[in-house]
Amino acid sequence: MEVTELKQQQGNYQFPDNFWWGSSSSAPQMEGAADVDGKTQNIWDYWYEQEPNRFHNGIGPADTSGFYYRYKEDIALMKQVGHNSFRFSISWSRLIPEGTGAINEKAAAFYQDVIDELLDNDIEPFVNLFHFDMPMVMQEKGGWESREVVDAYRDYAAACFRLFGDKVKKWFTHNEPIVPVEGGYLYDFHYPNVVDFRRAVQVGYHTQLSSSLAIQAYREQGQDGEIGIILNLTPSYPRSSDPADVEASRIADAFFNRSFLDPSVKGEFPHKLVDILRNEGYMPVYTEDDLKVIRENTVDLLGVNYYQPRRVKAKEHTVHPDAPFMPDRFFDSYEMPGRKMNVHRGWEIYEKGIYDILVNLRDNYGNIPCFISENGMGVEGEEKFRDAEGIIQDDYRIDFIKDHLRWVHKALNEGANVKGYHLWTFMDNWSWTNAYKNRYGFVSVNLEKDGERTIKKSGEWMKQVVQRHGF
Ligand code: BGP
């Protein structure tokens, strides 16, 4: 069934009573207070200091939505829009300012308060440990290229479980681990702005290892919740059924999806990827003991972030043998004619992708318990949709969510093990180098009025969805 057909179907989309409804967020994008109460710099604070002009309108990570100060007000708003669960991340550079060693007691108290406030409002905390925000002290030791940093991360994770594990029962080791690999080591949109495939492979491998070590630490402590990872899965669609296009899309899938999905869920890296790395001479430095850790510490639960598909075709021109090695040596991207776009973000909107991911997890990944941990629509200039009552009329966001939820519903009916839907994000926040360009929230944050929060039409709508368990 194609997108339009499903969209036209009216009727009742009913979800299970215990479905997780809510939203997701991250510390560096929402907390603000970047150099307050003992927090040290992470790579974003540092990079902004070095190159403020790389950030939209020159706005840096110190000016995010101020959740650090306003979390009680914000959690009350979450309650108002019907959340029964909410994902946030802990900032490593806030909790352990030197990267290893002493806990910052003020930071521990802050996260403890946030957790208590959520629980008091019947909102289950989902806690993620790393959202692109390497502490600068750790980056100076080599970041994810360094095995020492992997061990420091495991200790940081273990400290979080000890501090908060009695109340937090859903943990995530990383958000979108492929993104810092792409951004920081291949395509220059994260610090340290390296373009080097060999280093990228080491970073990716060490990030996976760090996740598996954190899961091992969680289980060694005898914690009784669930632990997983959050991956941005971009289903790879070939231009045609021509075998060369299909092979190109499989390779892209191995690089960008299966590189973390397979080891996280199955405990092993995909052969397709390993074969390429071995044949081309780009295997990372690894040990058999580490591979054993990866094999034995797979996830309980998978978060799926879905924004856009990847369209791929066979490579049309051979790459010069001396050109730097990049994954796109094996495929070209392809713009599907007539595709629907989110013009603000420049991303294709393809709702059926969310269904294809869920069915793939059902059929090829043991139907691992999962949930949609991010999906959302960034829009520029939303202030112009504010009506006389001050409410942003974001009907486009409601349509976007419904169009995706219909496909989630279909997957659920066909046996996919999907347990919830979280929007990116709760309130407008700071989006890395795009800063405040695109707004994503259920709640607007008015930067002109001291960060004033107002629930958007989509927030009011979501509340009804949760009350009715559907729409
Ligand atoms: C995901 C990230 C989020 C968030 C979102 C929206 O990749 O996990 O941190 O930012 O994308 O993308 P962007 O902010 O780049 O528009």
From TrEMBL:
Q: Which domain of life is it from?
A: Bacteria
UniProt keywords, alphabetically: Glycosidase, Hydrolase
Q: Return the SUPFAM superfamilies for the record.
A: (Trans)glycosidases (SSF51445)
Keyword Hydrolase present in the record's keywords: the answer is yes
User: Record's Pfam families?
Assistant: Glyco_hydro_1
Q: Which InterPro entries match?
A: GH, Glyco_hydro_1, Glyco_hydro_1_AS
| UniProt keyword Hydrolase present | yes
**Active site (record annotation):** E374
Q: Which family does it belong to?
A: Belongs to the glycosyl hydrolase 1 family.
What protein am I looking at?
6-phospho-beta-glucosidase
Species annotation? Terribacillus saccharophilus
